[in-house]
Every structure is written in structure tokens, then in C-alpha cells.
Specification:
- The chain folds into 2 domains: about 90 residues, 3-Layer(aba) Sandwich (Oxidized Rhodanese, domain 1), CATH 3.40.250; about 220 residues, HUPs (Rossmann fold), CATH 3.40.50.620.
- Helices cover about 45% and strands about 15% of the residues.
- The protein has 16 helices and 13 strands.
- Strands 8-7-6-9-11-10 form a 6-stranded mixed sheet, with helices on both faces. A 5-stranded parallel sheet has the order 1-5-4-2-3.
Length: about 375
């Protein structure tokens, strides 16, 4: 059985329950209000009510359809939400106030969001010398909360006009579904971000890759972004990685990669001469980004790729980067309960390296040195 998003909004809330079967990360990025997160691999353990209608939600209404049918076979009154969360989000973006952009901008200029978001944005830019007079920066927007906030922070920085620089708000469409592209475009209109969209065929190229499709996709995306940004006269691309991304990447490298490295605040491109990558949200906490999103009732997509839409390809099943990141998040969360400083300590470890206590390291040219060289 199926139910449309429009019909769902007309039902009495106390007579049904919405079960969101996406993983925790996707659910955290946004969900139907009141929904309960029961990831599909844990559904068999869940105690579902038999006295209420159960509306099942996934990203696009594909996985949830099979799950709703299985629940019906078990005697539940279960319905698949047609179009899933993407359809709910697409319809409800239109409910946002016409002055949402103005409210968001005012919030970044004063109060808690100015302190927790814009001040840290400015601190990262100053500390790591990310923006220089005369720069033309391609602000790369994927459609998620991080990149959309980064665009608004750059607009505020530009408004303050401390020194001259230019911005291009760049969206690459690597083969989005119609619904996901519409969500990105609607959010850009709501937030008053003048995006420039260009298209590529990346999804077509990586869809049938069995090994590390997400890694290949990310590398191809970055190459396309560099190329388009350079074509538009930019000398930098800006990505929306934040503080939590940095510490998780640092810890993942040690736990799963056997190496000590971190996510750098800026990098020179090896393949595009004169181009540089910057991460101006380097010092911003993810919880503060979520608080900003929820305060203004904004809704964003987690990942618009075909794998996330369907979750059925072998490539999706065999790629475990996401699960490793979730494990790392959970480990950091557990450690923080006994040591509130653990996150800061992980971050600081990458700038408090004592070479005299390191067995070996590689220099900027990739040459390996060991402690025996100077022992």
C-alpha cells in the first residue's frame, strides 16, 4: 500500500507513526517531523505498533516500498510514502517564509550564530590565510547543509567588504535526479544564493564501479570543479568541510589507514596550475551547523548520488567508507563522555607533532625519513 506526501499531511498524527529506514547519518541530515529512525538493517529488532498505521520512508520511496510490503505480509497496516523524504522536502521547501534569507543573514550578523558560525569562519580565514585581496573563489555547493551555510557565510564576508574579492556559487550536476536538482535550486532561491550550475556525466561513469565508487566519484567531482572554476577565472575552490570532518578524518587515518595525516585547511592543486582548495569552515562544529539549520526550519539533501537514492547496487554494498566514519563518530562520542577535551586533543595532535618521537615520516616530496637518520 502507498500514501502520498499530500495525503500524509492530512492524517491525524496520533493515529500513525512514520518509520524512516535510512541510516543514522541520512536521518540526522533531515527527516519528516515526528519520524522515528529505524535503519532497515535493524527493522527486525524493532517493536512496531500494531494499533497504528505505519508509514515507511526512505530517500526516494524505493527501498521503503519493499519494506512496507513485507510489513503488510506480517499483519501490519503499513504504507510506503511515495517519493520518500526527497518528495516531502521538495514540497515543503515552498512552505518557508519569503524573508527566510533576510532572517538567516541577520542571524549571522548578531547573536549565537554570529559567534559560533561567522566568527569561527572569519577566524579560520585569518588563521590559515585562506582568502586574499583579488581572489576569485568558486564556492562549491553540493546541496547539503554545510555547503549552503558556507555560501551564506561568504556572502556576509563579502558584504563587510574588508578587501576586494569575487565569488561564484558553483553547483555541479553530476547526474542528479530531477527531484534532487529541484531541491538544490529551491533552497538556493529561498536563501538568495545566485548559483551557477554546470553538468557532467560522473554518475554514469561510476555507477557500475564495484570498488570504492565513492572515492572515485569524489576525485572526479573535484577535478570537474577545478576545471570549471578555472574556466570561470577563479583561482580557488572552497569546500564545506568542518571541524568534525577534520578530527574524524585524522582518527580514521590512524585506525583504518595506518597513517598519521589530517585534512588540511588549504591545498595547492597538483593538476591545475595556479588553483588552490580552501576549507573556510575548518573551525566550525557540526552541531552548530545543525542548530542553524533547525532554527530556520531548513531542509537539505544528504547526498544526491544515485547510490543514496537506491542503496541497491553492489558498489553501494561493498563501499564501507561511510560505516567507518560512523564507527569513528561513535568512538569519539563515547570517549567524550569521560573526557570532554578529546575532540580538541585530536584536532591539536595534528599541529603538536614532535618529530623526535616519530618513528618515520614523509616530507612534502614523498621522501621517507626515519629516526635512525639522525640517531
Amino acid at each position: 500500500m502507498r500514501i502520498s506526501v499530500e495525503e500524509l499531511s492530512r492524517r491525524e498524527a496520533d493515529k500513525y507513526i512514520v518509520i524512516d529506514v535510512r541510516d543514522e547519518d541520512a536521518f540526522e541530515c533531515g527527516h519528516i517531523p515526528g519520524a522515528v529512525n529505524v535503519p532497515k538493517d535493524r527493522l527486525s529488532e524493532a517493536d512496531l505498533p500494531r494499533d497504528k498505521e505505519i508509514f515507511v520512508c526512505c530517500a526516494k520511496g524505493l527501498i521503503s516500498e519493499d519494506i512496507a510490503e513485507e510489513l503488510c505480509a506480517q499483519g501490519y497496516a503499513a504504507y510506503n510514502i511515495e517519493g520518500g523524504y526527497a518528495e516531502w522536502l521538495r514540497l515543503h521547501i515552498g512552505d518557508m517564509l519569503s524573508d527566510t534569507a533576510a532572517q538567516v543573514e541577520a542571524g549571522l550578523r548578531s547573536g549565537a550564530f554570529a559567534r559560533k558560525l561567522f566568527s569561527k569562519f572569519g577566524k579560520a580565514i585569518a588563521t590559515y590565510e585562506l582568502v586574499q585581496p583579488g581572489d576569485k573563489i568558486a564556492v562549491c555547493i553540493s546541496g547539503g547543509k554545510d555547503s549552503m551555510l558556507m555560501a551564506k557565510l561568504f556572502q556576509e564576508l563579502k558584504r563587510r567588504n574588508k578587501f576586494p574579492f569575487e565569488l561564484v556559487f558553483l553547483v555541479m550536476d553530476p547526474g542528479y535526479s530531477r527531484e534532487n536538482r529541484e531541491i538544490i535550486e529551491r533552497n538556493a532561491r529561498v536563501l538568495n544564493i545566485p548559483i551557477t550550475i554546470f553538468e557532467s556525466d560522473i554518475f554514469e561513469n561510476v555507477y557500475n564501479i564495484d570498488k570504492s565508487p565513492c572515492y572515485v566519484c569524489a576525485r572526479m567531482r573535484r577535478g570537474y570543479l577545478y576545471s570549471k572554476a578555472k574556466e570561470l577565472g577563479c583561482n580557488k575552490i572552497a569546500l564545506g568541510h568542518h571541524y568534525d570532518d577534520v578530527i574524524e578524518t585524522t582518527l580514521m587515518g590512524m585506525l583504518f589507514g595506518g597513517q598519521m595525516q589530517t585534512m588540511m585547511p588549504k591545498l595547492r592543486s597538483q593538476n591545475f596550475e595556479g588553483m588552490e582548495l580552501i576549507r573556510p569552515m575548518y573551525l566550525i562544529r557540526e552541531d552548530d551547523i545543525k542548530a542553524w539549520r533547525d532554527f530556520y526550519h531548513l531542509g537539505f539533501i544528504q547526498c544526491a548520488c544515485r547510490f543514496t537514492d537506491t542503496c541497491t547496487s553492489e558498489a553501494c554494498k561493498t563501499s564501507n567508507t561511510g560505516s567507518k566514519r560512523r564507527q569513528t563518530k561513535e568512538l569519539i562520542r563515547a570517549l567524550k563522555k569521560t573526557d570532554p577535551q578529546v575532540e580538541q586533543n585530536i584536532f591539536s595532535s595534528a599541529e603538536n607533532v614532535h618529530l623526535a618521537t616519530i618513528l618515520a615520516y614523509k616530507d612534502r616530496h614523498g621522501v621517507k625519513h626515519t629516526f635512525l637518520d639522525e640517531y
